[in-house]
Write a structure and sequence with these properties.
The chain has helices spanning 2-6, 21-30, 43-57, 69-72, 75-84, 134-149, 174-184, 234-248, 272-275, 301-309, 339-344, 357-380, 387-397, 410-418, 440-451, 460-465, 508-513, 520-526, 540-547, 561-578; strands at residues 11-14, 36-39, 62-65, 88-94, 120-123, 159-165, 220-224, 252-254, 268-269, 290-294, 314-317, 333-335, 404-406, 428-429, 453-459, 479-486, 531-533, 552-558. It is of the alpha/beta class. The strands form three sheets. A six-stranded parallel sheet has the order 2-1-3-4-6-5, with helices on both faces. It has a six-stranded parallel sheet with strand order 9-8-7-10-11-12, covered by helices on one side. A six-stranded parallel sheet has the order 14-13-15-16-18-17, sandwiched between helices. Helix 2 packs across helix 7, helix 3 (43-57) runs parallel beside helix 15 (440-451) and helix 12 (357-380) crosses helix 20 (561-578). The longest helix has 24 residues, at 357-380. It starts with a helix and ends with a helix.
Length: 582
């Protein structure tokens, strides 16, 4: 633990257990040196809390568990960390080798539990960590931290598993603890870490050269997906995008999780999902446009179909992740070193250095289509209290700079399509790596701890699925406001062609929606979290003001999922009839 702290580890999340006692004691003693120690009884919740910490800080937090099934509970967070390029350090205590494979209690093949999702697996000496020399321990810790943070050029950040055998005795005496405390405080945090014992596999080769080149003197578009880079890489990313748009004149189709909407100096298209609602596009709309794609694809299926119809070259730029990110199989090159590095490798501009007339004309057509859709939404959502209207109202109400986490399924899609066009810029977060609902509340708590303040927008099933996340209230130092959309079950399924006529042919409610007889306000209150039921969007502003005065609060907004599904369909039908794609 000291070697990890010396390497920069700032947060550890500890779960109860006997085999992990040496790690627990070491972490507690390191609190004197600035390590922030969090405790949790649920390993799954602990791992997602650490995931939120990593998302907000850009640095891995450590999760400490005992052996056995405790390790299996880390898998959902490891999967999300893997696909989402989020740093995460999983420390699991284990039995020594002589107790494995012989029927000893709580001895399982836990070293293999997380292998499919982790960037790297490090192991202690089979007979126990006590058999390892200090330099070996330091090198193991250094390699784990380096692997968790990636290299920034193609091997992205991600989860690392350190499986650490401990032989008995596991518990130190009082005198031993005194000596241990002195040794742990003998070297300050931030000292230079030792050279790694071993390195993870090399990153994949990245496409460069002519294949990764786009011509700013010809028309094109930028499609910006959810941001997956580190906080440190964000300023250079934004500046590079501003420089490219200033040079090319290309419009930026910005996903709700790109955090680009509303930023000064950027011309972004927000309503592209509705602009492209028409299933058939004009010849101009499917011409040989160039496409610069940033990160993973947005959730919009309409945008994906439009991209598939393009015949021009497409280049994908990701922030530190060199793995294939093109399910459409359309890009001719992918650069994993980030937008700033990609832009630096583009040919020098022509003598004018200004956007071509054709590009400016295309951008103007996108702006006109955006204005038409936003006018339609403003008119049709006036007086509505459903989920599309909530996304529009809430995105406009929240102040600039306040981070927002959108839960998966309906909330993230509604924010993408119906968000307020004049909403101020703010950091937007979502866990779209594997797009599950696991750990929604715990992730939000970790993110709030890292950032100091956060608003979570979630559906009822996603929040209930992670009800143990409310237990973080007593330890949380950041402010968390939870806006819960209570639509009586899985509202996303109302938007899919699942319901049958007659209704008796299939029990939709039992098989898909699965409404639960739980009062979310009562459940929060049991955990000491105050809450309110919002009686329509007319009171949302005052209810938000009340909630923002609490360290942790819940606002519940009841909606009708069937009515909202019909409203979304009607809005898209109207957009298809009234707006011509550029």
């Amino acid at each position: 633990m000291r070697a990890l702290r010396l390497g920069g580890l700032a947060h550890a999340v500890l779960c109860p257990g006997s085999r992990s006692a040496p790690l627990a004691v070491a972490a507690a003693l390191l609190e004197r040196g600035g390590l922030r120690l969090h405790t949790a009884i649920d390993e799954r919740s602990a791992a997602f809390f650490a995931l939120g910490l990593g998302r907000g800080s850009g640095q891995p937090a450590a999760v400490i568990t005992t052996s056995g099934t405790a390790v299996a509970n880390l898998l959902p967070a490891a999967v999300e960390a893997d696909f989402g390029c989020l740093p995460l350090l999983l420390l699991t205590a284990d039995r020594p080798a002589q107790l494995k494979g012989c029927g000893a209690n709580q001895s399982v093949n836990q070293e293999a539990f997380l292998a499919c999702s982790c960037r790297w697996l490090g192991s202690g000496a089979p007979e126990g960590l006590a058999a390892m020399a200090p330099k070996e321990l330091e090198s193991l810790a250094s390699a784990a931290l380096a692997a968790a943070q990636g290299d920034g050029a193609g091997r992205g950040a991600g989860p690392i598993h350190l499986n650490l055998p401990f032989a008995e005795p596991l518990h130190a005496s009082g005198g031993e603890l005194t000596h241990l405390a002195a040794s742990l405080s003998s070297q300050p945090a931030g000292a230079a870490p030792p050279a790694p014992l071993g390195n993870p596999p090399a990153p994949p080769r990245l496409a460069t050269g002519e294949a990764a080149t786009l011509d700013p003197d010809r028309p094109g578009v930028v499609v910006a997906g959810p941001w997956r880079g580190s906080p440190a890489a964000w300023p250079a990313h934004v500046q590079a995008l501003r420089d490219w748009q200033r040079r090319s004149g290309w419009p930026v189709l910005a996903d709700g999780l790109s955090s680009l909407r509303g930023l000064p100096g950027l011309d972004t298209v927000k309503a592209y999902d509705l602009i492209l609602a028409k299933e058939t596009f004009s010849a101009a709309a499917i011409g040989g446009l160039q496409v610069l794609r940033l990160g993973p694809l947005p959730a919009s299926r309409r945008l994906q179909r439009w991209l598939a119809a393009q015949s021009g070259p497409q280049v994908l730029v990701s922030e530190g992740d060199g793995r294939p990110l093109d399910p459409l199989r359309l890009v001719r090159a992918q650069c994993g070193a980030g937008l700033a590095a990609w832009l630096a490798g583009q040919p020098q501009p022509t003598a004018t250095g200004k956007p071509a007339w054709e590009s400016l004309t295309l951008a103007d057509r996108w702006r006109q289509a955006e204005a038409a859709v936003q006018a339609l939404l403003e008119q049709e959502l006036e007086g509505e209290d459903g989920e599309p209207a909530l996304a529009r109202r809430l995105s406009g109400l929240l102040p600039a700079g306040l981070p927002v986490l959108l839960a998966n399924s309906s909330p993230v899609r509604d924010w993408e399509s119906f968000g307020h066009p004049g909403a101020p810029p703010r950091p937007m977060h979502g866990f779209r790596g594997a797009s599950g609902i696991d750990g929604t509340l715990s992730s939000a708590c970790g993110l709030a701890e890292a950032l100091g303040d956060l608003v979570l927008v979630s559906g009822d099933l996603a929040l209930l699925h992670d009800a143990n996340g409310w237990l973080w209230r007593s330890q949380l130092r950041g402010r968390l406001t939870v806006v819960l959309i209570d639509n009586g079950g899985g509202g996303i399924f109302e938007q899919l062609p699942i319901r049958t006529e007659p209704a008796e042919a299939m029990d939709f409610e039992r098989l898909f929606a699965m409404p639960q007889p739980v009062d979310p306000l009562a459940l929060a209150a049991v955990h000491g979290v105050p809450g309110r039921r919002v009686e329509g969007l007319a009171t949302l502003e005052s209810d938000l003001a009340w909630a923002r005065q609490q360290p942790m609060a819940l606002l519940v907004i009841s909606t009708d999922r069937r009515r909202d599904a019909a409203l979304r369909l009607r809005l898209r039908t109207m957009a298809a009839a009234q707006v011509t794609p550029p």
